[in-house]
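Hi team,

Filling in the usual template for the complex we talked about on Friday. All components are listed, including any nucleic acid strands or ligand strings, so the model treats them as one assembly.

SUBMITTER: L.P.
PURPOSE: interface mapping
COMPONENTS: two
RESIDUES: 678
SEQUENCES:
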Amino acid sequence: MDLRNTWDKWPDANGRFGEFGGRYVAETLMPLVLELEAEYRKAKQDPAFAAEMQDLWTHYVGRPSPLYFAERLTEHFGGAKIYFKRDELNHTGAHKINNCLGQVLLARRMGKKRIIAETGAGQHGVATATICARFGLECVVFMGETDVERQKPNVFRMRLLGAKIIPVSSGTGTLKDAMNEALRDWVTNVETTFYCIGTAAGPHPYPEIVRDFQSVIGTEARAQILEREGRLPDAVMACIGGGSNAIGLFHPFIDDETVRLIGVEAAGHGIETGLHAAALNGGKPGILHGNRTYLLQTDDGQIIDAHSISAGLDYPGIGPEHAFLRDMGRAEYLSCTDDEALAAFQLCTRLEGIIPALEPAHALARVGEVAKELGPKGLMILNMCGRGDKDVFSVAKALGVEM
Amino acid sequence: MGRTRIEAAFAKARGEHRAVLVTYLMAGDPDLETSYQALCALRDNGADLIELGAPFTDPMADGAAIQKAGLRSLAAGTKLSDVIALAARFRQDDQTTPLILMGYANPVHSMGYDVFAQKAAAAGIDGSIIVDLPPEEDAPLREVYARHGLSVIRLATPTTDESRAAKVAEGASGFIYFVAVTGVTGAGSADPAAIAGKVAMVKKVSGLPVCVGFGVKSGAQAAEMAKIADGVVVGSAFVEKAGDAQASGRFGDAPPAMGSLARELQGAIASVRKS
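RESULT (copied from the run log):
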């Protein structure tokens, strides 16, 4: 009996994953999120939509991405065999484009000509700007001022692609503030605009849509590992900010009960310092950006700014499906500090000749422990969800190197 | 249960053949004492209902004026329990002016819907507008509000069609807040001609009074809105007075400035005779 994807019953009709998720948006947006859901249901049934997606995935994005045996890293730790799912080899250098492509195709079906997006590290912004350039759509990207500063190469790439960048100075000028501003734009331009959310969070149906489009990662990885090794892995690992790459990797394995699903949150300076971005390990359930999920917040329900060296993980919440998987005990969530991520970044670069983004460097930092725990007969997959070119300036600065 | 303070406020205005003036104030901006004085000044100068803003770090439906007001209030250390205490203080010698708490879901969720409802009712708060709790998500709140006699005030917008209006009306009480523009608070200016039909539709479908807000700043605009609605809501223009007081350091200037704005708006609204 094939039990795979019985977890597909989530979210339920109200957009809930157990107690998480939902549609906590201003009334102005409610008709839009309901319309988006209806349109998505139709698109899912439409073979032409799937065919267009598949064609662009193959010829534009470069899918399937390889599954690579990280031999030297495996030797280094002396434990389980470590494979990388190479989503950093996608066009634009990260997993983000899997989802952008799907959402922009949806926007086109809905007749929307203007696409807005929020971005942290800039990878989602670049991917959105790329797809908008490809289809000749107007693209506006909201980006926190702090992130504009620390991700200059991506800011320039987005501008080259024809996107308008709006730096957001409210709050601490990071991802959550960019998301607030994108929501304000959306509520103002409801008729013309499609909001392309980059992470598996936000109001229903976004967490489901993003998960479904990102599930190509896990679907490919599952088939690839079965072909290479003849069996399922013992663990799959990914970093977690909002959690889109992780849910994309996890979801196709979710009913394979022998496969451990391990997410790694950003612990910044350390969870005990309060300066971190680990919503599951250091937060509690609350309501923000359209969904009920774990959040970094004060006792009075005010949102606490996240901290991480990685702009892509610097978010005080997490996708609602991760909140659910954690509470159900189906997935485990570890954490990794800035310093540990920097060390893993360098280790992977030297041993494998792959410069990882700082985001997957967080997952890399926990790989050794899990590999040792599984032992030499074990098998694991890590999602290399982005390449590190964008981070070389930040890393140089953190290491005290003058460029 | 007898007539609520909200119902009484609308009945009084109907008797005077005019629309109601609803004013918004961010609690704790720039501090709680100033807010208390401002509440009294608003009441004394013609505010029929008062929305008491509860600050939130991430007010994604608000424009710059109310975002800044919330941050000023949070910087002064205002907690949700302080907002409730402010209402209780005002209620000590005002038994008639309805107080509506306006804010976002997370602080209320964090306190617990039940605890919040109990404390709010005890403080003399009459209901709430929680911007990010649409009808699909407010059932747990409605349930506890029903036990404490609090009103769930819902929003309708230019994107609300007739079937959606029915959903908005289901379980709503007090009045419907019609958001005049697609956008954030304080942005743009509303065109009464463009929304008059929608406002009438929402009133018919809900059977509740409809107040129009967002983008109303001047007496002239308020008078125009008074022609098409049962009430007019003004927010950002009041909040800017608190911002001025914060900037000058003369907090005491805010209450009289808000009072004179309320007087001007009430005069303009009352100049429109309602049948």
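MY TAKE: Residues 272 and 282 of chain A are 9 Å apart (CA to CA). Chain A touches chain B at residues 14, 22-32, 170-171, 176-177, 179-180, 183-184, 187-191, 286-290, 292, 295, 297, 299-303 (CB under 8 Å).

Thanks, L.
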